[in-house]
Automatic annotation (TrEMBL):
Transmembrane segments: none annotated. It comes from Adineta steineri. Residues 43-281 form the Methyltransferase domain. It comes from the Eukaryota. This is Methyltransferase domain-containing protein.
Length: 299
C-alpha cells in the first residue's frame, strides 16, 4: 500500500512538472514582458522611451556613468590623447556594428529597437563612395529612410538617397543640418541616426548644431562620429599646436546636450589622431541622481 501511494505521488508530481513546463513555455515571455514594463518606468522616462530596464539595473547604469564621466578628462601627451581620454560612459546591451570590418563600419545602439519604428530617418555625412554602412543598414532596417551626403558625386540608389553637398556650419558654401533638413522637408521628423565623418569639420558642424536649441538639435537619437585631434598650425617655425581645449569643449558640448558615450573604437589607419565614437541621447533627468542611496544631486 505504501509503495502504491509513493508511485501515485511520483506520477502526480511528474504530471505537475510537465504542466508547469508547458505553461511557462507558452506564457513566460508575456509574463516576463509584463513584469519588465511594470518595473521600468524610470528607464523609459530617462531614455525618452528607448530603454526598458528594471529600476535596480537602471540605477546601476547611472552609478557607472557618474564614475566614468568624472575620470574621463585626463589630457596626457598629444599622440595618446584618445587613448587617455573619454572612455564609454554607457553600454547598450545589444549594440551592433553595421558596415564592413575596419574603416567604414559603425556601432549602433540596439538595432532591433529601430525596427519597431514605422519610419525612421538616417543621415550619413561623408561617405567618400564607401557605402557598406548604408547598404547593411538598409538590409537590417528596411523601414528607415537613408540619406547620404558628400562633397563628391557618388551613386547609392539601391539602398540610399545620395546628395552632393558640402557639410558644415552653413557658411563659406557649406550647408548646415538645419538647412538640409529644411530642403528635404524633414524638419519636423526625428533623426534616429546621424553618422558623421567629415575629416575635422565636425567641430564647426556640432558647434553650429547645438548653438541653438530647437527641434532639430533636440531630436537626434544617436550620433556616430569620427573625431579628429584638432590641430592649429602656427606661423612661427611652422610648429604644430594641438587644441586640446577645443576637443574637451566638443565632448562637453555632447554632455551638455545629454549624450552619453556607448562605444569607442580606434581608427588604425590613423590611431593617434582619430577615434570613432558612438553617442546616444538620454533625457536630462538621467543626469540627475534620483536614487535615495546616493547623496549627489546632479552632474
Amino acid at each position: 500500500m505504501i509503495n502504491v501511494n509513493k508511485r501515485f505521488c511520483s506520477i502526480l508530481l511528474l504530471f505537475f512538472i510537465i504542466i508547469s513546463f508547458i505553461l511557462l513555455n507558452n506564457y513566460h515571455p508575456t509574463l516576463l514582458n509584463n513584469i519588465r514594463i511594470s518595473n521600468c518606468e524610470l528607464s523609459r522616462i530617462e531614455s525618452d522611451n528607448f530603454f526598458c530596464e528594471i529600476d535596480e539595473d537602471w540605477y546601476r547604469r547611472k552609478e557607472v556613468f557618474y564614475l566614468q564621466h568624472n575620470r574621463n578628462q585626463f589630457t596626457g601627451v598629444p599622440y595618446m590623447f584618445f587613448q587617455d581620454n573619454y572612455e564609454p560612459t554607457f553600454s547598450c546591451r545589444f549594440e551592433q556594428r553595421l558596415g564592413i570590418n575596419g574603416d567604414g563600419g559603425k556601432w549602433i545602439c540596439d538595432v532591433y529597437r529601430l525596427k519597431q519604428i514605422p519610419s525612421c530617418l538616417i543621415y550619413s555625412f561623408g561617405s567618400n563612395g564607401e557605402f557598406s554602412f548604408e547598404n547593411e543598414t538598409s538590409r537590417y532596417l528596411p523601414n528607415c529612410d537613408i540619406h547620404t551626403f558628400d562633397m563628391k558625386e557618388f551613386n547609392c540608389t539601391d539602398f540610399c538617397t545620395f546628395h552632393q553637398t558640402r557639410i558644415g556650419d552653413g557658411l563659406g558654401g557649406t550647408k548646415s543640418l538645419r538647412m538640409i533638413m529644411s530642403e528635404l522637408n524633414h524638419t519636423g521628423r526625428y533623426l534616429d541616426i546621424l553618422k558623421i565623418d567629415i575629416e575635422g569639420s565636425e567641430y564647426e558642424f556640432f558647434e553650429d548644431l547645438f548653438n541653438t536649441t530647437d527641434y532639430v538639435s533636440e531630436n537626434i537619437r544617436q550620433i556616430l562620429v569620427e573625431i579628429h585631434l584638432s590641430k592649429l598650425i602656427r606661423n612661427v617655425n611652422n610648429v604644430t599646436v594641438y587644441e586640446f581645449e577645443k576637443l574637451h569643449d566638443l565632448f562637453q558640448l555632447f554632455h551638455d546636450n545629454h549624450y552619453v558615450i556607448f562605444h569607442k573604437e580606434v581608427n588604425l589607419y590613423n590611431p593617434h589622431w582619430a577615434f570613432e565614437y558612438s553617442f546616444i541621447k538620454l533625457n536630462k533627468q538621467f543626469f540627475q541622481i534620483n536614487n535615495p542611496s546616493n547623496s549627489t544631486e546632479h552632474l
